[in-house]
Amino acid sequence: MSATDAVARLLVLVPWLLERPGAHVDEVAEALGTDRRTVLRDLAALEFCGLPGRLGGDLFEVELTGERVVLRLAPAFDRPLRPTPAEALRLVLALDQVASALGEELPALEGAVAALRRAAGVPAGVVPASDAAGRWLGPLRDAVAGARRVRLGYDGRAGRSQRVVEPWQLVLHTGSWYLHAHDVDVDEHRIFRLDRVESLESLDVDATAPRPEGDLPLPAWQPGPDALGVELRVDPAGRWVLEHLDGVEDLGGDLVRVSTDALGWLLGLVVAAAGDVEVVAPAHVRQALVARVRAALAAHPAP
Questions:
Q1: What's the rounded Cα separation, in Å, for the pair 106 and 48?
Q2: Quick check: helix, strand or coil at residue 288?
């Protein structure tokens, strides 16, 4: 069983137990579709859940009396949450993506996001590069539904390029959005990561390539012969960057090695991390990062 399965089960287990204090272990197992041994292991895991910089066990209190389970939240949860500006911004952006994907099904969500932006002091339209994928969901859903072509500005394996594509399907996989589409220029099926899309133009042209029958394959990036290994030092506040990367190798401590075939896109993530991620090697990548930052500062001089 994967770590993803365990996390998904814990996310269901916590609210379920909070609503049913004193539930029997067998009842919990039946509700989750698992066995007693897994339930007891999950309860033990909850007792070690903690926050960065603090000890484990500071989030939940698990009381097991005989076969009955009582789960309590830490006293800190009784106080209003006060997120940092960075935490508030990421929460707003995450909800923006949900609203873009499910706006038609959840019309009240748009108003809720607007209210959250006002409360957090995040102006409308603020979208950092690391969370830019959400802005393309709405137009691409329209293109899929209407069977229309779009032109993408894409930072991919061959660098920045303009791609005319016929969208087939949007997929959320391992935390990232992907687009299955027919690439008109090469006349082949291609998969595009939405956070590598830099621009999108809807074209008044009907799609001509039919979507293949059956299930489309899940995105699975494999490093090619042109992939470059980049060593990064990642502070705890910058760990979110790793969620957007494939081919990550843990080197111990705060060091990782990333294989990439889109260096410009990777450097954009490093810049968005605002000092929480540092390029360690190779030297020419560090130099490219410095040049990118200097160009951005020159284009937007401080008052």
A1: 36
A2: helix
Tell me the residue type at 200. Answer: L
Tokens, residue 279: 């390029």
pLDDT at 244 over 90: no
Reported pTM: 0.45
More confident residue, 115 or 270: 270
Q: Could you give the 3-state DSSP secondary structure of residue 155?
A: strand
Q: Which of 21, 24, 80, 69 is nearest to 47 (CA)?
A: 69
Arch. (CATH architecture) of 131-206: Roll (2.30)
Tell me the pLDDT of the chain averaged across its residues: 77
Place of tokens 């293949």: 212
8: Cβ contacts below 8 Å, ≥ 6 apart: none
Buried b (16+ CB within 10 A) or exposed e, 268-303: bbbbbbeebbbbeeeeebeebbeeeeeeeeeeeeee
- DSSP labels, 22-81: TEEHHHHHHHHTS-HHHHHHHHHHHTT-B-TTS-BTSSEEEEEETTEEEEEE-GGGGSPP
Tell which wins on pLDDT, 82 or 149: 149
Say how far apart CA 227 and CA 172 lie, in whole Å. 24
Q: Is it true that domain 228-299 has CATH number 2.60.120?
A: no
Q: Which of the listed CATH numbers 2.60.260.20, 1.20.1300.10, 1.10.10.10, 1.25.40.80 matches domain 3-78?
A: 1.10.10.10
What pLDDT is recorded for position 220?
Answer: 62
